[in-house]
Amino acid sequence: MNDSFLKDAFVYLLAAGVLVPLFHRARIGAVVGFIAVGALLGPHGLGHLADTLPLVRFVTISSPERAAPFGELGIVFLLFLLGLEFSTARLWALRREVFGVGCLQVVFCGVPLALGAVLIGYPPGVALVLGSALALSSTAVVSQLLIDQHRALAPLGQLVIAVLLFQDLMVVPILLAAELLTGNAPDVLTLAALALVKAVGAVALILVAGRFVLAPLVAAAASTRSRDLIMAITLVVVVGSAAITHRAGLSSALGAFLAGMLLSETAYRHQIEVDLEPFKGLLIGVFFVTVGMSIDFAVVLPRLGWVLGGVACILAVKIVFTYAAGRLMKVAPPAAAEAAVLLAQTGEFALVVLALLAANGALPRADAGVLIAMVGLSLAATPFLARLGRRLGRTLDARLNDNLAAPAQSSAEGHVVIGGFGRVGRMVADALEEEGVAYVALDNDPRRVAEARGAGLPVYFGDAGRAEMLARLGAERATVFVVTLDAPNAAERMAGAVRQHWPSAAIIARAKDTEHAHRLSALGVAGVIPEAQEASLQLAARLLTQLGLPDEVVVARTERARARIETALGRARRQGGQGI
């Protein structure tokens, strides 16, 4: 290990631990801080003075290429952690957003951007590749913002992530088109067919291996009670999946997302999240520092007007046409508007395409430098765009729902309906609010409803056991019904009303005791949480931890006990269904 590597590592850690927090305190944002630090301390910033001022070498980064793989690894882990929040069923439920909104977004934005490049003077082939690459958004920046705002699971977050997933799939055809511009590519149809086969094969391999190899492997590792072994297997799966999709020409982030999605269905997802979280932020920071280093001030400053104008045009085109794509697929105006602004920046993949075009001679290096600066500035603008988009979404939502205080019919969609807003209902609502998930609640205590309404919460007075009340809250468009009512009879009436009028709806219900839990299960409620048993399990888990048992052993034993309870409730549910 040479001194140059250690010095570069010191500068990266200085940026992450000292300089970027200063930007954060100034409310500029960590992403902007990392990019600014990279531009300042990189070879085109203060590093340019290293030959004349030797002391500058100790606070600048001499080899950004050496850090690039670490930055890419940060993006891989970010998408893996995001995949842990999803499941196969949830991804399938988003197929309309992935292949509908995502496809229209890429086409609607790519075509006008390509036409603009043609008008500037680029050949049609180069213009098409540039327009397609600039139409894509930053998976790393946007995903991180959604996670930081606790909105990854909200309807807006799922819409945005669905679009980003389709954009990742577009990596193959865009790279293929860029390769064809070199004039050295083989027959177009052969190359396209080969790329398609490799891409489909890579995704299929990850999904099949995850289903039939990964789950038994993690279970076997868990049986050894070794957290280190579980983490080692996790790292192999993440890096291996990313390498498979990268080798097939797809985005490595897509492979990491699929790996996370497969591990999300295991009992160890939360432990994995906790163990990886500290490394993710630092590695992503390295990536954005390298983005900042790619900005060449000698090229950009003489053309600063073109750079700023180009960024403004790209942002405007993507906002307008992404909004149009969302509305065409019947996305609500507030969500479509906020998603359009949030996805307006260009993505990190554009840097790869620009470097490839410049290396092949299809794009002059001076033009590539200007476009790289545009990409960097649009990435740096993302935190400001996110705030603008959120304000725009709230404004549109307020205009569309200005009578929400006394609705004839709720216009909410993809929301959660909570029956009862007492201690448990309020805790459920707080959890949903923290994650940005929309909800609406019913309670028959006027004082409690008045207090909640005074705090600006979407709580209404009414009997949650009446189907017509639930219908007024948009029950047919609700994602989940949560029954938290204190009185067992009232809880059973609500569960029965939901099951009768919306039989395919998901219901989660709080049960007072075992007998109540069995009655709810007999009504067909799949998600029954027995309050007494759950408290007993938590008490036993705390006791075992206090006695010195390792965390993974306590978790495994608690899960086994919980599984026995759920098995008994499932038996009651099946018997109740037969009785019906």
Automatic annotation (TrEMBL):
<feature type="transmembrane region" description="Helical">
    <location>
        <begin position="368"/>
        <end position="386"/>
    </location>
</feature>
<keyword id="KW-0813">Transport</keyword>
<keyword id="KW-0406">Ion transport</keyword>
<feature type="domain" description="RCK N-terminal">
    <location>
        <begin position="413"/>
        <end position="530"/>
    </location>
</feature>
<keyword id="KW-1133">Transmembrane helix</keyword>
<keyword id="KW-0633">Potassium transport</keyword>
<feature type="transmembrane region" description="Helical">
    <location>
        <begin position="6"/>
        <end position="23"/>
    </location>
</feature>
<keyword id="KW-0812">Transmembrane</keyword>
<dbReference type="Pfam" id="PF02254">
    <property type="entry name" value="TrkA_N"/>
</dbReference>
<dbReference type="Pfam" id="PF00999">
    <property type="entry name" value="Na_H_Exchanger"/>
</dbReference>
<keyword id="KW-0630">Potassium</keyword>
<keyword id="KW-0472">Membrane</keyword>
<feature type="transmembrane region" description="Helical">
    <location>
        <begin position="98"/>
        <end position="120"/>
    </location>
</feature>
<feature type="transmembrane region" description="Helical">
    <location>
        <begin position="159"/>
        <end position="178"/>
    </location>
</feature>
<dbReference type="InterPro" id="IPR006153">
    <property type="entry name" value="Cation/H_exchanger_TM"/>
</dbReference>
<dbReference type="InterPro" id="IPR003148">
    <property type="entry name" value="RCK_N"/>
</dbReference>
<feature type="transmembrane region" description="Helical">
    <location>
        <begin position="126"/>
        <end position="147"/>
    </location>
</feature>
<feature type="transmembrane region" description="Helical">
    <location>
        <begin position="306"/>
        <end position="325"/>
    </location>
</feature>
<feature type="transmembrane region" description="Helical">
    <location>
        <begin position="190"/>
        <end position="214"/>
    </location>
</feature>
<feature type="transmembrane region" description="Helical">
    <location>
        <begin position="280"/>
        <end position="300"/>
    </location>
</feature>
<keyword id="KW-0050">Antiport</keyword>
<feature type="transmembrane region" description="Helical">
    <location>
        <begin position="30"/>
        <end position="47"/>
    </location>
</feature>
<feature type="transmembrane region" description="Helical">
    <location>
        <begin position="67"/>
        <end position="86"/>
    </location>
</feature>
<dbReference type="InterPro" id="IPR038770">
    <property type="entry name" value="Na+/solute_symporter_sf"/>
</dbReference>
<feature type="transmembrane region" description="Helical">
    <location>
        <begin position="226"/>
        <end position="244"/>
    </location>
</feature>
<dbReference type="InterPro" id="IPR036291">
    <property type="entry name" value="NAD(P)-bd_dom_sf"/>
</dbReference>
<feature type="transmembrane region" description="Helical">
    <location>
        <begin position="337"/>
        <end position="362"/>
    </location>
</feature>
<protein>
    <submittedName>
        <fullName>Cation:proton antiporter</fullName>
    </submittedName>
</protein>
